[in-house]
Structures are given as C-alpha cells and as structure tokens.
Specification:
Layout: H1 13-17, H2 26-57, H3 75-80, H4 83-117, H5 120-131, H6 138-149, H7 154-161, H8 173-196, H9 201-209, H10 214-225, H11 227-242, H12 246-251, H13 259-268, H14 274-299
C-alpha cells in the first residue's frame, strides 16, 4: 500500500527556509523622521542656527548693533592672541581646572562614604540632603557666600570671637574657587555615587587576601572600576566651571575677569563689539565641544583591569 505525501511537505529545506524580503512602505520610512522632527526643529532653531550666526559675526571686526554683517576675515580671532586676553583665558582655565581637582578630591570620599559606608536606610535621605542646595537658585547660593565671606560676615565674626585675625576673602581668587566648588561639587558626588554604589567589593577582598595594601587596592581595584565616572564627572565640572559667570562676577570682583564676563562685556557692556564677543564665544563653544567629545569617547569605555 502506497502512501501519498502532500506536495507542501516534500519541499526541500533550502526552499522552506528562504524568507522573502520585507517591503518597506513610504510610511515606514517617514515614521522615524516624524518622531525626530520636533526635537530636530527645536535643536535647529535654538542651537544650530544661533551657533552659525555667532560664527558669522565672529568674522566681522568691530560690528555693532544695526551694522551690516559682511564677513571680512579672522581679525577677531587674531585679537584673542593679545596678552591681555590670553591672561583672561588662562584665568578661566585656572578656575575650571582648580575647581575640577578640588571637587574630585572632596567628592570621591563623600561619594564613597554615601555608597559603601552609610547606613542603607539613611542613604537616600543623606543623598537628598547633600544635593538639596541644587534646588535653590545659583544666584541665591552666591549671595549666601557673600554674606559669609564679607569683612563683617559670618566667617570673620567666628574668627574674631576666638581671638583670631579676620580674613579678607571676598573679591579674591580664593572666594571664586570656594563658590564654584560649592556649586559644582554635588554634580561630581552624584556621578561618583552612581558608580561606587555598584563597586564589586569581592575584588577588594581578593586583593586583601593576596596581601595588597589598602592604598594599592584603591589604585588597582577601586579606581579602575570607577574610572569612567571619574572622567565624566571631571569633564562635567570642567565644562560648567569654564562657562561660569555668576561666581566670578559676584565673588571675584574686578580682578577676576573670565571669558564669560568678557563675552558679556562685548555684547551688553559699554564696548558693544559683537564681532570680538562672537569670536570669544566660538572659542568657548569649541573648547566645550572638545570636552563633550571626550566624554562621549571615554564615558562608555571599559577600563582595563
């Protein structure tokens, strides 16, 4: 007796495994563009076009409000090389680098204690209490430091009550660094805390079993595991410090001129030189863009252990 096998079951495996390519309709192709359109238009109008306008103005020397924009060269960029403006750039870099180093030195122990040593039931509350100043205006925080550091402020009142000489801190470089560190320290702590909370303590225990000194275990185990957070936090603080305007303006006085204050003077001050201000802004945008590119490059890198 013969058994007849249906034709559909006699097809070869190669034929049955072939999947016909999917045909995309016009709606499938336009759907991602429609989803990205609101954000794309927003970025185009508020980021790309203003940046291109600033670059165009930077090529016009001595332009003022109402003048015709006719790009003529790089005279504004050459003017930045003047020793006076180079000192301003150097001072801005000094404030940003100093604040970054201090925030890292202070923030790492704080973040480590919050992530690894603080009681678990109090961790969230302590973290909220630490970042609570960020909920207030940066201008109010700066005026609070003015109240503390001024000659008749809280700091000198405490010092004189103990028979110590008063300090003239306000309107100095030290006051600017204090204000910038206070403003940017919570960002460093938050980034480091997120990484230290996931720290693999088994590696620390293994290093201790192998006879590693605590300092060696820190540099060989803890730092490699948190290298990405250290890099991202440092770049974030550096970018924010480089463009800070309020702290140098209110705490530093006239002797603490920075790039942000210089740009403000070119656009809204008595000089009204929009071309030179645009050139300074372009240099600042370029520096920030490089820092962001480094964050993107090293932010997701896996450190070598």
């Amino acid at each position: 007796m013969s058994i007849q096998i249906p034709r559909s079951q006699t097809s070869s495996p190669d034929e049955s495994s072939v999947v016909s390519p999917r045909r995309y309709s016009l709606l499938d192709l336009l759907q991602p563009l429609l989803l990205l359109a609101p954000a794309g238009i927003w970025l185009l109008l508020l980021l790309v076009l203003p940046t291109l306008l600033i670059v165009e103005l930077s090529l016009v020397p001595g332009i003022r409000p109402g003048d015709v924009v006719i790009p003529r060269g790089i005279d504004n960029y050459i003017r930045i090389l003047d020793p006076l403006y180079l000192r301003v750039l150097g001072r801005s870099l000094f404030f940003a680098v100093s604040t970054t180093i201090i925030c890292l030195l202070l923030g790492f122990p704080i973040a480590y204690w919050l992530a690894q040593m603080a009681p678990k039931r109090w961790q969230n509350l302590l973290l909220i209490a630490f970042v609570l100043p960020l909920w207030t205006s940066s201008l109010l925080r700066c005026y609070a430091w003015i109240t503390i550091l001024r000659p008749t402020g809280l700091l000198n009142t405490v010092l004189t009550s103990f028979g110590l000489p008063s300090l003239d801190v306000l309107n100095s470089t030290f006051a600017v660094i204090i204000g910038m560190t206070y403003s940017l320290l919570p960002y460093m702590v938050l980034i480091l805390y997120a990484s230290l909370e996931k720290l693999d303590r088994r590696l620390l225990e293994a290093a201790a079993d192998l006879g590693a000194h605590p300092a060696q275990a820190f540099w060989k185990v803890t730092v490699p595991q948190t290298f990405t957070a250290i890099a991202v936090g440092s770049f974030l603080v550096f970018i924010s410090g480089l463009g800070d305007f309020i702290n140098p303006e209110l705490l530093g006085g006239a002797s603490s001129m920075t790039v942000a204050r210089l740009i403000y003077n070119q656009f809204l001050g008595a000089t009204q030189n929009w071309g030179f201000g645009s050139a300074l802004s372009t240099i600042l945008i370029l520096a920030v863009s490089i820092a962001i590119a480094l964050i993107i490059k090293f932010g997701g890198a896996t450190p070598t252990r």
